[in-house]
Design goal:
Helices cover about 35% and strands about 30% of the residues. It is α+β, with helices and mostly antiparallel strands. Helix 2 packs across helix 3, helix 4 crosses helix 5 and helix 4 packs across helix 6. The protein starts with a strand and ends in a 9-residue tail after the last helix.
């Protein structure tokens, strides 16, 4: 079932597919994979599916808690949700901007789809927050760089992707099974350049991939 968010923009949650009119826009995570930054072939399908099912349930519970609509949830979700609640309570100042925001961002004129787990004011800073129930991996710094650069700011004076990137903080919150969050700070300025490069590379590969099919060689 598709959610139409703005004119010409649709998101199919089942396929995790972003569209602008008839054009399919690559998701941020697909960009990292097709651009050659992340190789999931080393992770078993069973592990991915198991993590995906629990991860989706945890993300849903955290989102519903963010918007004050939390109801019943599976017991397996409980420690991870409590880790998120604990994180928010321990912040000196936590003010939600958006939760599970689905949109399309642009960096250097190239579009990509993104679902931002959480965007909030944390201790006075506009902060992109990535939630994970498993290990926080190096590519999450690059993923959040894309989110920080692509997501519009309330401050309209900051118009460039790099400006938006610099104006934000980025963190990953690991929601551990012991109910305790572990915060990972992503602070490398070069993360923006890595994301911009892999976004361009992924686009180049899509435009030219037909030349490298077996029947054309």
């Amino acid at each position: 079932m598709s959610n139409v968010l703005t004119e010409g923009f649709a998101f199919d949650a089942e396929k995790h597919e972003y569209r602008l009119g008839s054009q399919i826009v690559p998701a941020c995570t697909q960009v990292l994979s097709s651009g050659g930054l992340v190789d999931w072939s080393y992770v078993s399908r069973d592990t991915l599916e198991r993590r995906s099912e629990l991860g989706k349930a945890v993300h849903k519970a955290c989102h519903l808690h963010n918007i004050d609509r939390l109801g019943k949830y599976d017991l397996a979700v409980k420690p991870h949700l409590h880790a998120w609640i604990y994180f928010k309570e321990r912040c000196h100042n936590f003010k939600l901007i958006s939760s599970e925001q689905v949109t399309i961002g642009y960096v250097n004129g190239l579009p990509f789809g993104m679902t931002v787990d959480c965007n909030a004011i944390v201790d006075g800073w506009d902060t992109i927050i990535e939630l994970k129930i498993g290990e926080m991996l190096p590519h999450h710094a690059i993923q959040t760089a894309g989110y920080a650069a692509g997501l519009p700011l309330d401050d309209k004076a900051i118009k460039t992707p790099f400006g938006r990137f610099l104006a934000r903080r980025r963190i990953g919150v690991q929601l551990r099974e012991n109910g305790q969050p572990k915060v990972h700070k992503f602070e490398e300025r070069s993360d923006f350049e890595v994301f911009a490069s892999v976004l361009y590379t992924a686009g180049w590969k899509r435009r030219h991939e037909s030349y490298y099919r077996e029947e054309n060689i």
